[in-house]
Amino acid sequence: MLSKRASLLKPSPTLAISAKEKELKAKGIDIAGFGAGEPDFDTPDHIKQAAIKAINDNFTRYTPAAGIDPLKDAVIEKFKRDNGLTYKRDEIIISCGGKHSLYNLFQAIFQEGDEVIIPAPYWVSYPPMVELAGAKPVIVETQEDEDYQITAQMVKKYINKNTKGIVLNYPSNPVGSIFYRENLEQIGKLAVENNFYIISDEIYEKLTYDDYTHVSIASLDPAFKEKTIICHGVAKTYAMTGWRIGFAAGQSSIIKAMGNIQSQSTSNPASISQMAAVAALNGPQDSIALMLEAFKKRRDYLVRELKSIPGVTCYNPKGAFYVFPNFNNVLGKTYKGRVVDTSTALTEILLEDFHTAVVPGVEFGKEGYLRLSFATSMEVIEKGVERIKKAVASFE
Ligand code: GLU
């Protein structure tokens, strides 16, 4: 019999949809895939060369479980350069992906009886990860017409003696919102006053559009930095999703505990990937601007086209590579005798009959919405949009 923990757990819906997408494509079905957020660009050449060199140099053995010093130093440089933050080596850990850093962090700081505040819409894996640590996710809804901001006032209502942390993700997956500096300041103060951690997931830091730039909450006040653990990684910035290199920065006691968990579970992240990540962080950064330019064009097109569908509204993302259109006015209609009553039903119809893969909003804690990743080619985006329009037009 399975453990209660495992039997209650379902697979990550973003990964499940992307697996389904790949399975259908392998069968020869022409799927327009907007599933998992994964840049369609190739990993830049100098990064690949660094990995090839690592193999040829036989850098293929165990490394320290928490990562190699050259990569920790590259991460330290990144925080100095981009965020004006100073960390020491024992305040940095390298993990097998940003997700792994988050998982180990939650295992290190949360336990039974703890409550963790998560603004919704949230990334699909935060609540299950909190639960896997034995703690309770406390969801605070944010709204499209309030620019998906989280304010101190909203958070205050949920703070009690059990509150152990808040998870902030900005630019956010799935909506692409950015938290205003004044809101970050207020939430930082709340964390200090009420003694809870700020888990700051900044994996989409480099992907911002228009005039928006990323500001890390940890950089706003040394007291906030004390309370913050930044989780990050190379996947989204350098098109390195499969290499599995994430990192985290925070108090040395927490980083040490995460390292202990890592050393008793996965051991080190792949030695070759670590060398590739050193090249990514220390090497030329021009690939980011090229990706951003393409993402921006796709965002503009997708938002415009989705908004042109009768009844559909769409928030214009300020960062990341997702759109989160509101299909509430479409729900309740009928398709082939079936009432399209939920975002999951809509997703199923889009996939089965219109060969378009999207993720239902309910998985991100917001019913009536869909998430589409635009980290895919313009050709797929154009094709997918046409199919969604056709689907909605056929609903009665
Ligand atoms: N973070 C990406 C997404 O939301 C990758 C898949 C995952 O790990 O959930 O699509």
CATH class designation of the largest domain? Alpha Beta
Q: How many DSSP helices?
A: 14
Q: Write the element-wise H/E pattern from the N-terminal end onward.
A: HHEHHEHEHEHEHEHEEHHHEEEHEEEH
Low-confidence parts, pLDDT < 50 over ≥5 residues?
Answer: none
The largest sheet has its strands arranged as 2-8-7-6-5-3-4
Biggest beta sheet summary: 7 strands, mixed
Based on the coordinates given, report the CATH architecture of the largest domain: 3-Layer(aba) Sandwich
- The N- to C-terminal Cα distance equals 46 Å
Give the oligomeric state of the chains in this entry, treating copies of one chain as homo and distinct chains as hetero. single chain
Quick summary:
With 396 residues, the chain is α/β, with parallel strands linked by helices. Helix content is 42%, strand content 14%.
What can you tell me about this protein's structure?
- The structure is a single chain.
- This protein has helices spanning 4-7, 13-26, 45-56, 69-83, 98-109, 126-132, 152-156, 181-194, 222-227, 252-264, 271-282, 286-307, 343-354, 378-394; strands at 32-33, 92-95, 115-120, 136-141, 163-169, 197-201, 228-233, 246-249, 322-323, 334-335, 338-339, 356-357, 359-360, 370-373.
- A 7-stranded mixed beta sheet has the order 2-8-7-6-5-3-4, with helices on both faces. Strands 9-14-13 form a 3-stranded antiparallel beta sheet. Strands 1-12 form a two-stranded parallel ribbon.
- The protein folds into 2 domains: 4-42 and 287-394, Aspartate Aminotransferase, domain 1; 61-282, Type I PLP-dependent aspartate aminotransferase-like (Major domain) (Aspartate Aminotransferase, domain 2), CATH 3.40.640.10.
- The chain is built from 14 helices and 14 strands.
- The protein has 396 residues and is of the alpha/beta class.
- The mean pLDDT is 97.
- Helix 3 (45-56) runs antiparallel to helix 11, helix 4 packs parallel to helix 11 (271-282) and helix 13 crosses helix 14.
- Helices cover 42% and strands 14% of the residues.
- Glutamic acid binds at residues 12, 14-15, 36-37, 99, 123-125, 173.
